[in-house]
Amino acid sequence: MEFPVMSLGEYNMRPTTMLFRNLMSMDVEESIRANPLDGVVLLGGCDKTTPALLMGAASADIPAILVTGGPQLKGNWRGEELGSCTDCRRYHTELRAGSITEEQWAELQNSIVRSPGHCMVMGTASTMASMGESLGIALPGNAAIPAVDSRRAQLAEASGRQIMAAVEQDLRPSKIMTQEAFENAIRTLHALGGSTNAIIHLTAIAGRLGIELPLTLFDELSRTTPFILNLKPSGEFLMEDFFYAGGLPALLSELRPLLHMDAMTVTGRTLGENVSGTINHNPDLIRSLDEPLNSEGGLAVVYGSLAPSGAVIKPTAASPDLLTHRGRALVFDDHDDMEHRIDVPDLDVNPEDVLVMRNAGPQGGPGMPEWGFLPLPKKLLQRGIRDMVRLSDARMSGTAFGTVVVHVTPESASGSPLAAVRDGDIIELDVANRRLDLMVDEREVQRRLAEVPPQKPHFTRGYGAMYSQHVMQADKGCDFDFLRAEELG
Q1: Burial of 138 by CB count in 10 Å (0-12 exposed, 13-18 middle, 19+ buried)?
Q2: 311, 417 contact by CB (below 8 A)
Q3: How big is the CA angle at 50 (ends 48 and 52), to the nearest 5 degrees?
Q4: Left (φ > 0), alpha (ψ -120 to 50) or beta: where does 259 sit?
């Protein structure tokens, strides 16, 4: 029996689909509980749908299997292979800089999305499909088969058969998505150079099962997991190439020494049994642990006076020379302020400055939109500048790139140090030592915070009011406090 739940249209919903991820998860949970179901196949695709499905299924805890829609085929423009929307962002920057024309931009847009499917880079959709497979809740191969490849339909049919076997064996999410499985997923995330959003989503899914995933664990595993997948936005290739190279099973096989290979999966076999005999057909795309792209993982967690509970950066997609940086702050109070001022000709900005945006977190956004990929000022683009240190309490798309610090926690709307930053303050970023500091005396910070007026509520009724009362911060997965398993409170 097929039945619908709320769908989250990534491009259309305002201010962000993240505002409604928890609502969809509740729809999934209650639909499972209300119907006479012995098992469920979770059909998802773009960014928030996959974690919402897994969160709801984890809470309901009957046998479940994940099937995602798959990535698009590769785009191609004037002989260059393109990936949405990493290359959309790159070329839109060139459009703003005047390096390409409106006609060329339109031609590129007509060339980049040439099939159904989600973004064909290692964005959030591809990352979360990979997380499902590495958690063991999806069949091997789910992450990378293109949406229009006949093997995607074959995978779906096999999943339909397997859910029947999972019901017979009582393979519930709680038996599959264990502490060891989440550690496997985190290591896979780092090896992939995956989306920063996965940290929030994995934390939320684990929280539904009573499993705590502190940011320190993500960073600890990053330190000991090499980055080995040469895929945009952190590398060269695209998801279609990843599939031809052997897909996630081939990458998991390369990671074998670092993973809990005895973790049970929805196949009824262990992760090690699932990837046994897998061949890596493109060692330039899927590197070995001995020849990684980077000795550490794709994501890092930084702490300091500006981010007491942590913030996240993707070093593999950043400019190496900016990973240690000291610069003066240029502050935007919110997204509207940034859009109104970023291209003003007399904006007082230099390439060494740090672009700061606040009021974009779970409460401030509201919903923590993907605003963290702040555009560079047009006046600097025209000088050839293509990256600056940028930081906010927002999220950013997994397709984005650059030296971007996101998920600054606590968010500014809660009266955190981010709310006290002023133009000209000095900010220090030191990714190697995992530091993000505001070089302002603590007493001055507290004095400034005392002057910040309380934020007016975004909602007074309905789901929005419930969201405002119960959403947790990014380091807790932005889930609702009452939806976490009792073990976590």
Answers
A1: buried
A2: no
A3: 65
A4: beta
> Residue 66 forms beta bridges with which residues?
42, 138
What's the start-to-end Cα distance of the chain, in Å? 35
At residue 487, does pLDDT exceed 60?
Answer: no
Rounded to 5°, the CA angle 354-315-421 comes to 25
User: Residue 229 carries which side chain, given as an amino acid letter?
Assistant: L
- Cα gap 435→303, rounded to integer Å: 5
Cα–Cα distance between 143 and 247 in angstroms, integer? 7
Residues 281, 246 contacting (CB under 8 angstroms): yes
**What does residue 424 show for φ and ψ, rounded to 5 degrees?**
95, -15
Residue type, 150: S
The whole-angstrom separation of Cα 38 and Cα 164 is 9
Task: Say how many C-beta atoms besides its own lie within 10 A of residue 107's C-beta.
Answer: 14
Query: What is the tens place of the pLDDT at every residue in 397-436?
Result: 999 999 999 999 999 999 999 999 999 999 999 999 999 9
Residue 53: per-residue pLDDT: 98
In angstroms, the CA 186 to CA 190 distance is: 6
Nearest residue to 87 (alpha-carbon basis) of 48, 95, 485: 95
Tell me how far apart the alpha carbons of residues 186 and 167 are, in angstroms, rounded to a whole number: 27
Task: Specify the residue for token string 């729809």.
Answer: 27
Given a cut of 60, whether residue 124 has pLDDT beyond it is yes
Token pair in block for residue 314: 């993707």
For 237, 388, 435, 467, the CA distances from 384, given in Å and listed in that order, are: 25, 12, 28, 42
Does position 375 have pLDDT exceeding 60, yes or no?
A: yes
| Cα distances (Å, whole numbers) of residue 250 to 106, 122, 296 | 37, 16, 19
In this prediction, residue 486 carries a pLDDT of 74
pLDDT at res. 489: 43
Query: Residues of 164-201 as b/e, b for ≥16 C-beta within 10 angstroms?
Result: eebbeeebbbebbbbbbbbbbbbbbbbbbbbbbbbbbb
For residue 126, pLDDT over 90 is answered with yes
Cis omega (within 30 of 0) for bond into 173: no
Q: Let me know: does 229 contact 287? Beta carbons within 8 Å.
A: yes
CB atoms within 10 A of CB 304: 19
pLDDT digits (tens, 9 = 90+) for 58-89: 999 999 999 999 999 999 999 999 999 899 99
Mean pLDDT of 192-213: 98
Helix axes 197-208, 49-60, angle to 10 degrees: 10
**Residues 145-187: tens digit of each pLDDT:** 999 999 999 999 999 999 999 999 999 999 999 999 999 999 9
